[in-house]
Structure formats: C-alpha cells, structure tokens
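Standup notes, structure subgroup. Blocker cleared on the adenosine-5'-triphosphate input:
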Amino acid sequence: MANKDVLVVDDDVLVCESLKEMFILEGFSVDAVLDGQAALAKIKDNHYQVVLSDIQMPGLNGIELLKELKGRSPDTTVIFITGHGHIAGAVEAIKLGAYDYIVKPIDDLRLKLTISHALEQKNLQASYESLKKRIKPWNLDETLVFGDRKMDQLLGLVHTIADTMATVLITGESGTGKSMLAHYIHKHSHRREGPFVKISCGSLSETLLESELFGHVRGSFTGAIRDKKGKFEEANGGTIFLDDINSASPNLQIKFLRVLQEKVIEPVGGNVPIQTDVRIITATNASLQDEVANQNFREDLYYRINVVSFTIPPLRDRLSDIEPLVNHFINQFNRIHHREIKAISKSALQICLQYPWPGNVRELENVIERAVILSPGEFIVPESLPANIREIPPATSGEIFQHLTLEEAMERTEKQIILETLESLSWNRQLSARTLGVSRTTLFNKMRRLQLVDPRRSAPESLTESTPS
Ligand SMILES: Nc1ncnc2c1ncn2[C@@H]1O[C@H](COP(=O)(O)OP(=O)(O)OP(=O)(O)O)[C@@H](O)[C@H]1O
Ligand SMILES: [Mg+2]
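Run returned:
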C-alpha cells in the first residue's frame, strides 16, 4: 500500500492533467484518473490523504464514490469540484461527509489553500502515523552494517574521499545500498551539516525534472505560478544525489555538464545563471560504459561524474554481511513493530545464506521485517521465511540408502549436508562451521574424515596446511 497525497478524479482529461501537473510542481505525490471506478481501483493499492473529485461523472459519480470511500478509506479527506449549476449537489455532498467543494473554473490559489487546510485539520495522530509509515527505516536507523571483507575494503576507500569535493559515481544492482552509501559519504564530509538533497533522474517527465533540478521563474510555462527554487539551489553548501543518472535525457546531460564544469545553474525561463556550491554524487544500476558505447550517455559527462567510483557487490557475493544485516534488521523491526524477536535460528540463517537475493539488501530487509511480524515465538525459524526462499534443494531420497548400513547412511547424509554448506559459502570454513553449529576444529576433522576437499585447492595440501583453531 503506497501512501500518496492526492488522487484527482475528473472525466475531463484537461482538468485532470493540469491539476496533476500543478500538484507535482507543489511537491505533492499525486495520481489522476478519469472516473469513479478507476478511482476505486487506485484506492485498493494506495492510501490517499485527499481525494479531489468531480461530482458529475459517467458511471460511478462523485457522491457514490464518496460513499464507497467512507467504507474503504475512512480517513481520506474528500473535496469536490463542481460546476456552477450544481452547487446544491455539493452541499448535499458535504452533509454526507465531504470536507469542502471548489467551484469551476478552478482558482489554483483557493484550491491549494483548501487542500492545505484539509491536511492541517486531519488529526495529529493520523498524520504522525502516516509520516511514520512514509519514513524509510533507514531514516530511523542509518547505520551502514557490514561484516564482509569486500565491504570493509570498500568503506576504507570511501573514507579517504568522503571529505573532499570529488564527484562520486556509485554503481551496483538494485537494493545493494547505493542511496545509503551516498548519504553515508555526505555524513562523513565537512558538509554534513548542510543539506543532502536526493532526486531520481528517472522519476519525472523531462520538463518537470528540469524545473525540479534547476528551478523555474514564474510564468515560464503553464502552471509555473511563482518562482521555484530547484534542487541544486536547495543543496547549496551540501550534497546533491542524482540517482538513476543513466535515465537523464540528452538535454539534461548537457545541463549537468555545465554544472560540473562551470558550477552554475540556470533556472527554466531565467537568464541569470546562479553560482552553486554543491558536491555531486550520482548512482546507477545500469552500466554507464554500455550506455556510452550505445551513445545514450555523453562520454564527456561520464568522465566528469566518474572521478571516483564505487561498485557495491551484490549481496550474494558478500555472504558474511548476511548475518550482521539480519541481526540489525531484527533489532530495527523489533523497535518499529514493538516485537521482541531474539534472533534467527541456525536453520533459517542457513536458508538465508543459500538464497541468491536478487533484490539484494532491500529484499533481505523486507523478508526480515515480514518474519519479525509473523514469527509466533522468539526466534525467526524457516517457517517465518517466504516459501520461495525456503525452497532449498530436495532432501536425499530413501532409495539412495537402500544397500547401506545405518552408519554408512548417516555418514553419507552428513557428508551431503557439510558439502552443501561449504559450497553455498564458497568453502569458507569459518562461516560454514558457524552455520552448522560446530567448532572449526570439528568441521576440519569431519572434512578430513569424509574426504571433503575444496575443489579450487590442490587436494592433499588443503587439508594439511592450516592448523585448526
Ligand atoms: N549496509 C547496509 N546496512 C543497513 N541497511 C542497508 C545496507 N545496505 C542497504 N540497506 C538497506 O537496504 C535498502 C536498500 O538500500 P538502498 O535504497 O540504499 O539501495 P539502492 O542500491 O539505492 O537501491 P535502488 O537501486 O533501488 O535505488 C534500504 O532500506 C537500506 O536501508
Ligand atoms: Mg537508490
């Protein structure tokens, strides 16, 4: 369920689009649909603070929509838009629980005031709750957690450049922690008291994005009802984080180049360049080199933003991060959801270590949140994990044991379990021992007895070289 500010419902496409554009410019999250049925469909998946709806619409009209809303989303404020001839209908709507009505033609200022008042009037608790929901957990707890040597090395490098003006490019699969690292860099620079402004280059249409980034002067396009500061100006003295930089249009790429080279920005419709003092961090989960090769991304800009670059490895390549992350998320979600989960069980952790995590840390975070909420006891057990993650390779079948003594059968099973664990953990014995719940010495002895040899090492040496601790 996504939390959004406004849903516009009007069968007039023009009204719909222009209202939507205005709300976006004002910084609201907004959806717009053309009839009551479509509005109900939206409400299934989203929670809106305000529904702004026409009364006269084909199909489900505004009043019917209001009644439906009272049942399905009682704390959503409904405001009607009505033609001059239909004020009686609007008054009736208020009796039914609508907050207010606006008469067409719509006066933008009056509309904005009405919406602001409506939002203010909602009781404090409700807005606090919704705010809490909208805050990403890492705003509550921004600790960057790691246990893997790869991340340790990466952060070592990060620290050497954090407190410089160097432009940084962060790459990595979705959910690996790029946004988090960008913020971390900002927090470890002398700009930490200054603003950290984040914007995704793939989030808005080109025109809107340009005005979001560079600001606009009043009247420079329809809907630009007053001067607006852009994100670059907002970030003055701090850091701007341009996420999904690969999505920037050719036109925006030129503008970025200008900012990087000349340290000036030009608001849309303005002709006086503004000096900026901003540190730029960019991120992408697409390969910018490929984009350059395919001529989708300017080579000169690529070199400008790629002064220092970090690639965050996918979670499946940094297995030693999994346990500390799981523990961190358990603590975090215990606090958020008022739960008292103590730990993850060994078997559940083993499953987490074997699963490839295509959605990376974000996916792990979601899985642990769900498990913290759903686990009936004090521990996260395999059953607390979603089925797709639990699907580990099928257990050894009965017929394999047919002609074996009990001792032989048990030995074979033991070997299979140890082998699977070692393989899933890239033959890291320390980690495998911990996962299997035995000491390193025990694991070492078992490996020798069962003749389990890391295929990447030469056989005899691998079992004699290291002294078990
Ligand atoms: N090392 C970490 N320690 C704690 N939490 C982390 C870590 N890395 C990522 N997370 C959490 O995982 C989630 C995803 O991280 P983030 O949004 O930074 O990823 P991303 O790479 O920017 O993803 P996208 O490509 O989708 O923008 C966030 O909620 C973040 O708090
Ligand atoms: Mg991100």
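Discussed briefly. Residues 406-424 form the longest helix (19 residues).
Next: hand off to the docking folks.
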